[in-house]
Specification:
This protein is mainly alpha-helical. It folds into three domains: 47 residues, no CATH class; 70 residues, no CATH class; 46 residues, no CATH class. The protein has eight helices and no strands. The radius of gyration is 30 Å and the shape is elongated. One of its GO terms (molecular function) is DNA binding. Keywords: DNA-binding, Nucleus. It comes from Chrysophaeum taylorii.
Length: 191
């Protein structure tokens, strides 16, 4: 299926799914729906996958619109921060019976989520989760390599004493030996 056909196929499907957009899928089209001659594909990353809603999410979406702020409260932080604090305090003070309205709305929203997620997976595949934090590639230098190879010679020392001992050994090496360790480290680098 080419990209234009995919766009025409996906548009009616996405129309029934909240939060889905097909504007960046496929080829640019004229107002009549025909592909623009000589245009390149505008295929980009898919839209964000649908997310689950909790009763608290539904409550916050409902209540944040209605919270008004006094002049005194504006001095406590940004408008959004103050509204969030006020709404959170209101949620904590609610009884389970009061929260049940939002629990039911969240259950309805999650039933729709299951349908939207299945359709998303069908159209775009399983969403890729981003890894938290950045994985750094360790780049060894001559001292690191020297430390790794000589640290086994001091099994009875704690880490601090081991670092001090190996550091003094490194300082005692002449420049040619240090250069050899640095060259070994350059050849053993990953990435």
């Amino acid at each position: 299926m080419n990209l234009v056909a995919l766009r025409r196929f996906a548009r009616p499907l996405a129309a029934g799914m909240r939060g889905f957009s097909t504007t960046t899928v496929g080829m640019p089209e004229t107002e009549a729906g025909e592909p623009v001659a000589g245009a390149e594909s505008t295929l980009t990353k898919p839209p964000k996958p649908p997310t689950r809603k909790t009763a608290y999410n539904v409550f916050m979406a409902d209540v944040l619109k209605t919270i008004t702020l006094d002049k005194d409260e504006l001095a406590e932080g940004s408008k959004q921060q103050v509204r969030m604090r006020k709404a959170a305090k209101q949620w904590k003070g609610m009884s389970d019976a009061d929260k049940s309205k939002y629990v039911l709305e969240a259950q309805k929203a999650n039933a729709q989520y299951v349908k939207d997620k299945a359709e998303y997976v069908r159209l775009y595949g399983e969403p890729v989760r981003k890894k938290k934090g950045i994985e750094k590639v360790k780049k060894l230098n001559g001292y690191n390599l020297f430390f790794q190879s000589t640290s086994q010679d001091f099994p009875d020392l704690n880490f601090t004493e081991k670092v001090a001992a190996i550091s003094s050994l490194w300082k005692q090496l002449d420049e040619n030996e240090k250069k050899t360790w640095n060259e070994k480290a350059k050849t053993s680098r990953v990435g």
